[in-house]
Structure formats: C-alpha cells, structure tokens
Write a structure and sequence with these properties.
Elements lengths: L2 H17 L6 H8 L3 H7 L3 H24 L5 H22 L2 H8 L1 H28 L8 H14 L1 H5 L11 H16 L8
Length: 199
C-alpha cells in the first residue's frame, strides 16, 4: 500500500469515526489529508470504497490476532476458550476504536457480510484445527468436526453485537471471566450433545 493511500485511509478513519460515514464527504477527507480531490479519486471512486478498505484493514488485524492464538501450544480446551475470548475482544476493540464507523459497520448488513466472508472462512478453519487437535488427544469426541466448527462460529457471531455493547460485562477488574464461563458453557453443551457423543 502506498503512503498516500494509507494517509487517505487513516484520515477517513478519523472522520468516519468522529462524524459517521453519512456526514463525511470526499472533500472533507481531501482537506484533512492534505491531498487533492483528484488524488483521492485516483485511489477510490467514492467514500464507500474507502470504508471497505478500512474494514478490510481492521479485519486483517482480527486475523493476525486470532492467528497468534493458533500458534500457541495449549491444552485443547484452554485453546478453545482462549481463541474465543481473544476473538471476541479483538472484534470489540476494532469497533470501539472506530467510533461512529463501528455503528455504521454493524448497521450495513450487506457490507458486513461481504467483508466478513474471508474472516468467516479463516475462523471456521481455526476452530476445525482446535477441535481436530482435541480429538487427536482424546479430549473431544466429535464425529463431524466440520459441523461443530460451523455451529460454534455462528454461535460466537450471534453474540458479537451484545458483547461489543457490554451486555455481558460484569463489575470487576477481569471482564474476561464472564466470557470464559460462557465459552465453557458452550463447549460443555457441545460435548454433551448427540454430536459430541454424549457422556
């Protein structure tokens, strides 16, 4: 990515974050970035393209963070919990870091789905890997790891917005404890389902 393109994206991120997408113009971005409108249009056709670039950049950050968990040597249950806690927290950080942009991101369902497809494939593959490691070590007894990984992924996605809004937060210094408990509850349900092979 060129320095100019990066400058445009970073400037737009500030403006979208403070004013929202609707209240930001290409001219606003040109003025604050100190780049001419012609330069802006060399890289982006409109502000929606810039928004897509910002979201793509932020989702790359999510991918890097969750991939770090995958590289760690851990007990499969601990890794399952650490992966979900890390993933939920990095998603919340991305949205909170971007202010009004985060609100716009979650309002536009079509854009969210298009931008998240790459992340979705990566997340499901990571979950499959964790579950396969657990099965090889005799910790998990799932007969269809693909289905369990997909189910787990969509359960996690289903609580993205309420988690980001702090619905599950409890008073105290370690807010991760609530998320860890809920993650273990999900895992316990999977392990005791018909798919998990029962007790």
């Amino acid at each position: 990515m060129t320095t100019t393109k990066k400058k445009i994206i970073d400037t737009a991120k500030v403006l979208f974050g403070s004013n929202g997408l609707k209240n930001t113009t290409m001219n606003d971005i040109a003025v604050l970035s100190k780049k001419g409108r012609r330069t802006l249009y060399t890289y982006f056709k409109n502000k929606n393209e810039i928004l897509d670039a910002i979201i793509s950049e932020e989702l790359d950050c999510v991918v890097r963070t969750i991939s770090e968990v995958m590289e760690k040597e851990m007990d499969p249950i601990d890794k399952f919990v650490a992966y979900i806690v890390t993933r939920m927290n990095v998603m919340r950080e991305v949205v909170q870091r971007n202010g009004s942009l985060g609100a716009d991101f979650f309002k536009d369902v079509i854009r969210v789905e298009l931008c998240r497809r790459k992340l979705e494939r990566i997340e499901i593959d990571h979950l499959k890997t964790i579950l396969q490691e657990g099965r090889q070590k005799g910790v998990f007894n799932f007969s269809n790891i693909d289905q369990v990984a997909i189910f787990t992924h969509f359960v996690i996605r289903g609580i993205d917005v309420p988690y980001i809004r702090g619905v599950f937060d409890e008073p105290g210094p370690d807010k991760n404890e609530t998320l860890k408990r809920k993650t273990l509850t999900i895992l316990h349900g999977l392990l005791n389902s018909e798919e998990g092979g029962g007790e």
